Amino acid sequence: MKGDHVGEFEELVLLALHGLRGQAYGVSIQQLLERETQRRVSLGAVYAALERLESKGLAQSTSAPGTPMRGGRSRRLFELTADGLRSLEAMRRVRERLYGIARLRPIKGRI
Amino acid sequence: MTARRTDGPPDAWLALVRRLVPAHRREEVVGDLVELWRLRATAGTRLRGLRFWLDAWSIARHTGRVPPTFTERTTTMELLLTDVKTALRGLRSSMGTTLLAFGILAVTIAAGTITFSVVDAVAIRPLPFAAPNELVSVQRLLKIWATPQSVASQDYFNWLEHTSSFTAIGASRFDSLAFDIGGVHGTAGTARVTANLFDVLGVKAAHGRLFRPGDDEPGHDDVIVLSHVFWTQHLAADPSVIGRRVPFDGHLREIVGVMPAGVSFPISAFRPPDVYVPYVATTDERSPALGNREFALYVVGRLEPYTTLAAARADLEHASTAMISAFPQAMEQDSTLVVSSLQDRVIGPAKQWLYLVLIAVAVVLVIACLNVANLLLARTAVRTREMATRLALGASRGRLARVLLIEGTMLALVSAAAGVGVSFWGVSIAKASLPASLARTSGIAVDLRVLVVSIAVAMLCGLLFASAPAWWSSRSDLAASMRTGNAGSVGAGRSRSFKTFLVVEMTFVSVLLVASALLVTSFIRITTADLGFDRRNVVTYSIDKPLGSMPEADQQLAAHAFLTDLFDRVRHTPGVKDAALIYNGLPLSGGSAQYSIAVPGQSNKLLMDAHQVTPGYFSTMAIQLLRGRVFAESDTAGTAPVAVINDVAARTVFGSDEVVGRTFTFRGSTTIVGVVRSVRADGPEIDVRPEIYVPIAQSPMMSRGSVRGHLVVRVNNTSNAETTAVGSAIQPLLNTPRAPMPEIVDDAFRRLTADRRFNAGVMAIFGAIAILIGAIGIYGTMAFLVAQRVREIGVRVALGATPSRVMRTVIRDASWCVLLGLVVGLASARAVSSLFTSLVFGVTPTSPSIYIGVAALLVIVGIAAALVPARRAARLDPLVALRTE
Fold first, then answer.
1. What confidence tens digit (pLDDT) does each residue in B333-352 have?
2. Which residue of A has its CA nearest to B42?
3. How far apart are CA A35 and CA B260, in angstroms?
4. I want to staple B242 with a disulfide (CB 3.0 to 4.6 A). Which of B208, B253, B422, B860 is the partner?
């Protein structure tokens, strides 16, 4: 089971893959996450997460031509697999249930 | 949004990154990095370089960790990283050994760095002048003296006209000037220099100008150049002082310039000059016709291109000979000229012992390396099975050796970093404790070259001490190691190589100990040497009492009255035993002037140290009277001139001890009334010279309008209270704004022997480090060998060996190594001992007691160090020992 667990950062990367819709590669993911989380995200961490997601079968990659911005060097585009999408939805359900429970319960004093 | 093609990380960086990444990912990774750089450039993000490398590093880190895609093919860099990790694990697995090795290396590298910094600044770095190798110094060596002296001004002016070997010759002489700046009174050490001196040296002013031709014309010489130190201390480093007129010795002098920081001339044992004034020679000083010569000029010349020192010397000698044949009265005594490079004169005798210290620190380093090698070797032996397992799993022998080399190098580098860190702090301590007599100590610092040398040495050490284990493990017999049940036992051959290391280490330790013992003994002999007078509890005060203008006869009376009054006050100060006055040649004060003396029946004039003293001088200084009498109050200007000479003068000049009653000519015919013991006025290491003493009361010096000299006071102790009491007792008589400064003669002696003290101290420290490392080596090796032989010892004990017998075996093993090392070491020390001849004092470099002492010390330390493992072996329980399988 442990091998299939999706960590918090991996979850963010999965979301980014989906959100970038076919334009997800190292830099675009890193930029999106850095902007949205307001945290420093290293390229290496993104790569590592992508590798793990790929090995878990949640993401897949294809090679794509480069842009002038990167001196024409090729890119490795990532996208969600069907499993990846299911995994995201499963995680979302868990969260929403938990948020729902959290909202129902009145906050009393200190925890 | 198109970025400029040139905007991006440097190509070299990208090339480096390529090495970090597997080939089939390079394009994308490099592309991403470039794109990210440009995005950041557009956004104006700062520290792009740093962020680039953080990203690159994180990629390298992750690619190394993440299977499978990024590690399908490993790069060289990855291999190396793995090796580094393995090496780190290796170092961590035996923390004790690692820390010990680290400690030993850090201490020795620090010692090496500090020593090299000092030697470099003092002896290796060129002088701060233009083309310093063209500069030569000229000195005169009189036959009766051991060391060359300054030259006479007549010589200088003669050479100026009649030599052709030099593009220019300059000269300088010491003087002192009283100054009064902003309410601060003081005496400035002064160099009177020829106007061309700074041109000869090629020195440029930091501010204003230095001297130029014409500054030494009488009437135009009221100019002064300040040293950088003086300018900073007394004029607040204010550049606007150029052109200001400041009183020196009562005359206003215009400040024309400031010397650059760290540059002074003469560079000598004494403190560098505070100020420079032009040297204006009198007719007397220029002309050899009067035969009145004073040896006081420091002459420096710049050689013409392609002129050798020998040719320059011949040229100078030729000019001098011509002068003497024209003016025979200029002839003094048999003498030769000494022409040497300025660098050699500046460093002088210090060079030898500085290099000795450098060699000593190298030996310490070798000892440390041998020791660390032994430690690592022992560890490697323990890890034999680990190595064998790795080999069996497919690691190449080269790769194993590489891991060991990396271990060694990393250890060396970390130790070097710590050592260099320590040395930054150590250098400042060394600077403070260095002998003041050492020239150029202010330039001592840990600089880039020193760092490079330290790191190079550390790398070399790393390679050296890692290569033995590496070589070893690469030859290890795979099958045999796997078969042994006992992890990492060593055979007889291996234990022999441990002992060989130990023997070599002991050899170096004993050589170093002999050197330390020689220098420490020399220092002890020096401090206890007989100087011919009692230097303890004597304090001196410099006296300069103007008498005002009055007829000569009145001056004699006034001087006499002043001295009576002076001694009266001093002798009534509590704690004072005796007091006297000496003019010229106070012992240990840094020299004395020589005067020409003619002895009936001898054609040459003789130069002798002539001291003018009051009658109490001999009793105050405790100088022993050998024959005749010393001076009495009744020896006055009105009575026949008398003199006391020392025994050396009696023997060398008059050829007999029975000289009382004989006469010589020193400002008139003088009768010898007594002979006293010779005083070593320049310290224990300088030979005694012929000296004469004449009564101050009969001296014409008194008539120059002032009473000058050193008041010498013997006190009960030289505590601050007593010396100040004397100073304030005499102050009213001197009409000075403050009491004269006490100079304690013992302090002067300590300054004089400071280089010896430093030398002995450094060598003692090195000796201590060496013997400590040696002891650790013996302990470590023996402990390791005992641990290796646990089973064997267990069997022996089981078969009936007594504990004391087991102990003896271990100690015998250790003793053999120590003795073998000692024999080789002492023999080598004996062989090179002649190098020490000029560095030792009061002990011969081959003195048996030194060698016996070193041997005894090393044997005791050796046995003590072996005792711990020996006891461990003796206490071994055979049941436990045999169970180790």
1. 567 888 888 888 877 667 77
2. A69
3. 57
4. B208
- The span from the CA of B679 to the CA of B684, in Å, is 9
- A47 touching B (Cβ < 8 Å): yes
Rg for chain B, CA atoms, rounded: 36
Q: CA B782 to CA B779: how far, in whole Å?
A: 5
CA distances to A105, A106, B43 from A109, in Å: 12, 10, 45
- Min Cα–Cα distance to chain B from A60, Å: 12
Q: Which two tokens stand for residue B566?
A: 């002076």
Which of A44, A63, A68 is nearest residue B55 as measured by Cβ atoms? A44
Q: If DSSP codes are grouped into helix, strand and coil, which group holds residue B328?
A: helix
**Inter-residue contact B84 to B411 (CB < 8 Å):** no
Higher per-residue confidence, B375 vs A95: A95
Using the Cβ of B29 and the Cβ atoms of chain A, whether some distance falls under 8 Å is answered with: yes
Its pTM stands at 0.63
Amino acid at B667: R
Provide, for chain B, the percentages of residues in helix, strand and coil under a 3-state DSSP scheme, each rounded to the nearest 5.
55, 15, 30
Q: What ipTM did this prediction achieve?
A: 0.85
Name the residue with tokens 């052109």.
B243
pLDDT of residue B715: 92
Task: Give A57-110 as a DSSP string.
Answer: TSEEEEEE---GGGTT--EEEEEE-HHHHHHHHHHHHHHHHHHHHHHHSPP-S-
Could you give the CA distance from residue B285 to residue B294 in angstroms, rounded to a whole number?
A: 8
B34 and A71 within 8 Å at the Cβ level: the answer is: yes
Distance CA A39, CA B774 (A): 55
- Contact by Cβ (8 Å): B495, B792: no
Judged by CB atoms closer than 8 Å, whether chains meet at B31 and A30 is answered as no
